[in-house]
Structure formats: structure tokens, C-alpha cells
Write a structure and sequence with these properties.
Layout (H helix, E strand, L loop, with lengths): L10 E6 H5 L8 H15 L1 E7 L8 E2 L5 H11 L4 E4 L3 H7 L5 E3 L1 H9 L3
Parallel strand pairs: 1-2, 1-4, 2-3, 4-5
Length: 117
């Protein structure tokens, strides 16, 4: 188990996908990242929003011409309930993390998903 939220209902987890997949070498393939996050979310009862700049694989959210940082910042402002933010991007943490219950670094999240293999 990772970290429990103080809230018993499903928790939104905003994920800067490219930040997470690029935190490892070799990079985590996009489809594998989406699959791993889906498995983690099912175990944790979380609702992930896996955001990619531009196009996204199935299960992810593509931002088109908008940057993932801008999309995540806007989405964080729309959320009324608690959320977690997954990114190591300091600027994004400042822009979108103000209302986050928890902020998790991309590398730490990748290690959790991969079981540090």
C-alpha cells in the first residue's frame, strides 16, 4: 500500500505523465505507464488523470496544443474535493499544487509503480 488519503471516497490523482515516464532510464513506455497506473489506482481506489503533452495513448489524456502543465493547473483549479499531484516539476508544483492534499515526485511515483525493479 502506498499512502492513504484522509478521505474515504475516491481520490483524484493528477499525473504529469511525461515527468513520470522520463524519471527512469530507460524511459517507461507510455502504454506501460498507463497500465501500471491503472493497476495501482484499482488497488488504491484512486481516480487517476494521466496527462500527456500532445497526444496520449489509450487511457491517458492528451492536451492537444495546450501544455500538460497548463491543463493540470486548470484542472486543479476546477476540483472541489481533495486531490494528489504527481510531478517533480517545481513550477507545476507551485502552479497546481496549492490545493493538493499530497504532492508526489515523478521518480518516487515511478519507483512505487515499478516496485523498484
Amino acid at each position: 500500500m502506498f499512502v492513504e488519503s484522509q478521505h474515504p471516497l475516491s481520490l483524484t490523482v493528477l499525473i504529469d505523465a511525461r515527468n513520470v515516464l522520463r524519471s527512469r532510464w530507460p524511459n517507461i513506455p507510455e502504454e506501460e505507464l498507463v497500465r501500471l497506473i491503472g493497476e495501482w489506482a484499482q488497488e488504491e481506489g484512486a481516480e487517476p488523470e494521466i496527462v500527456f503533452d500532445g497526444r496520449a495513448p489509450a487511457g491517458g489524456i492528451g492536451t492537444g496544443a495546450e501544455s500538460a502543465d497548463d491543463w493540470l493547473t486548470r484542472r486543479a483549479g476546477e476540483l472541489e474535493g481533495p486531490y494528489w499531484l504527481v510531478t517533480s516539476d517545481r513550477e507545476l508544483r507551485e502552479r497546481a499544487g496549492g490545493g493538493a492534499e499530497r504532492i508526489i515526485g515523478g521518480g518516487a511515483f515511478a519507483s512505487l509503480l515499478l516496485g523498484d525493479r
